[in-house]
Inverse folding.
């Protein structure tokens, strides 16, 4: 079954991402692994939804595609600046003018 | 739709693989000494749990696990790490013998007890035979809402959900009391450093934040029909606000939604929820009995075509009641998550060190 | 006809999954953060697009297809931006690439050294 083979492939890819998250020498490797793991989870949810005939699972996939991005940005901001409250830099023309 | 000839085996294989991955990640979380790496691994753990819950055919729970575990939990844990050190000490194995024995014995007892549980999905088990079966059979006639989880959560067990909402509100108040009501540091942007142009991120965030908020509203109102509901929608909405704070700075987000307003919205949500129940009491029914939400004269005047057909007209009270309390839950959950984020995010590592030295 | 489309869709899903697996393999084998970001973002985005296209072909035209298009839009919007931000952050933290030339832009030359590296 094609979708079952796809699921197996995605699970293999996810296992490799876990390996990188555990091994990664720097924290940025781990953040990259989590982001990639999240994208593969979105695909896995969509494929599983089709396999089991329950398209309601696509809502979870959409939500996770958005949440994954936010969590990655939060992690990246924490490791880069050691703070969560400061705004991210903008080119000099834009600073202070935008609401 | 393509259906599998042996879907039972597929789901069993998926279950086994996912649980093995869960075990590996849990082992890695325990073994790692860096708390920052542990937070990242926790995020992966929550994701695998969410996929496993989907395979077990529980989309509402999987929804909540995905948004809370992998989204909010990660962000709030990062905020918590700002208040403490980033590494744990190396454990002395002699101190671990007693806890290990206790864990092993309790775990063994639990596994022994689990062998006596009924089969998954057994229709004769106590959970499925009595009240559960009554809910399944009577939801269509009593409430008329397709999503039975929402029907049980919001209508049959509305009082419990009111308690949950109040607990979430209390947690937000607790965090606000302990961590203070606003930013501690100056929140000025850091001095420009190497490669500090985030134009792409700002533009993408400007496009994404309204989309996330819109999707939160979709989940809120679609909770009657599919997976979703007030709790998930509240968390997604707060993620939109947190994304704004992360990219554009906490000061701008606090200008848009001041902490005082966030706390007021949280209490407003609980007020709306309890208020719906009191309106039911005023109109003659019990607390949170939505059949009495509208007085009979008004209910007779509502045209049946609003709900689709005349057969659904008797369920107007239930639909409106569920809508009302879900709005209350949405407001409380959003405002509480935003309050918790405000409490943590105003700090930097230097602030935390300065406070620790005092 | 629907069966043929479903088979083609299944083929696309398999190709997309193969791309994702190749990308994951690259993330494991590449020597450096920047090369891993390359492997991750390019293969993730392309693999996700192919998988979602395949699922659209399987589903035919319906609400499900619309939701798949939404997922595709969000993936296309977020994955490259996240990779960009991550590479930006790694560079700003002072990670030097292990392979290839390393040029500092003229506008950044005022700084003598990059920021100290984070504790791993």
């Amino acid at each position: 079954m094609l979708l079952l083979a796809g699921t197996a492939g995605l699970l293999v890819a996810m296992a490799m991402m876990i390996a990188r998250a555990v091994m990664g020498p720097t924290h940025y490797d781990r953040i990259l692994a989590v982001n990639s793991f999240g994208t593969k989870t979105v695909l896995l949810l969509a494929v599983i939804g089709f396999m089991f005939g329950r398209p309601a699972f696509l809502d979870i996939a959409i939500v996770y595609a958005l949440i994954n991005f936010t969590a990655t940005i939060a992690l990246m901001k924490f490791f880069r600046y050691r703070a969560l409250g400061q705004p991210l830099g903008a080119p000099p023309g834009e600073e202070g003018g935008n609401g | 739709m393509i259906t599998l000839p042996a879907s039972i085996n597929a789901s069993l294989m998926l279950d086994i693989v996912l649980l093995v991955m869960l075990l590996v990640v849990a082992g890695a979380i325990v073994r790692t000494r860096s708390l920052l790496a542990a937070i990242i691994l926790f995020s992966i753990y929550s994701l695998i749990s969410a996929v496993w819950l989907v395979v077990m055919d529980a989309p509402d729970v999987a929804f909540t696990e995905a948004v809370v575990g992998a989204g909010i939990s990660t962000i709030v844990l990062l905020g918590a790490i700002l208040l403490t050190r980033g590494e744990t000490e190396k454990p002395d194995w002699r101190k671990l013998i007693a806890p290990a024995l206790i864990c092993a014995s309790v775990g063994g007892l639990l596994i022994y007890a689990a062998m006596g549980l009924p089969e998954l999905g057994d229709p004769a088990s106590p959970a499925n035979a009595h009240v559960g079966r009554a809910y399944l059979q009577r939801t269509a006639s009593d409430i008329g809402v397709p999503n039975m989880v929402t029907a049980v959560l919001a209508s049959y067990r509305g009082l419990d959900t009111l308690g949950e909402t109040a607990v979430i509100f209390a947690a937000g108040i607790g965090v606000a009391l302990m961590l203070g009501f606003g930013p501690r540091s100056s929140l000025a942007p850091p001095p420009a450093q190497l490669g500090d142009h985030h134009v792409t991120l700002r533009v993408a965030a400007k496009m994404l934040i309204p989309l996330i908020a819109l999707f939160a509203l979709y989940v809120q109102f679609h909770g009657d029909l599919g997976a979703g509901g007030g709790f998930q929608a509240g968390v997604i909405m707060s993620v939109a606000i947190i994304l704004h704070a992360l990219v554009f700075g906490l000061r701008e987000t606090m200008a848009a939604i001041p902490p005082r307003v966030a706390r007021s919205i949280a209490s407003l949500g609980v007020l709306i929820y309890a208020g719906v129940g009191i309106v039911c009491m005023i109109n003659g029914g019990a607390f949170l009995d939505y059949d009495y939400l509208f007085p009979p004269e008004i209910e007779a005047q509502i045209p049946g075509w609003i709900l689709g057909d005349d057969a659904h007209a008797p369920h107007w009270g239930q639909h409106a009641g569920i809508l009302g309390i879900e709005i209350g839950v949405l407001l409380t959950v959003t405002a509480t998550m935003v309050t918790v984020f405000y409490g943590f995010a105003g700090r930097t590592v230097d602030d935390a060190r300065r406070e620790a030295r005092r | 006809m629907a069966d043929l489309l479903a088979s083609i869709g299944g083929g696309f899903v398999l190709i997309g999954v193969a791309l994702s697996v190749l990308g994951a393999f690259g993330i494991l084998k590449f020597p450096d953060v920047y090369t891993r970001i390359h492997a991750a973002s390019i293969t993730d985005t392309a693999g996700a697009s192919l998988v979602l296209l395949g699922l659209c072909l399987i589903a035919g035209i319906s609400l499900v297809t619309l939701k798949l298009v939404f997922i595709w839009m969000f993936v296309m919007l977020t994955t490259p931006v996240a990779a960009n931000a991550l590479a930006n952050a790694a560079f700003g933290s002072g990670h030097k690439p292990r392979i290839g030339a390393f040029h500092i832009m003229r506008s950044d030359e005022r700084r003598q050294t990059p920021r100290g590296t984070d504790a791993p």
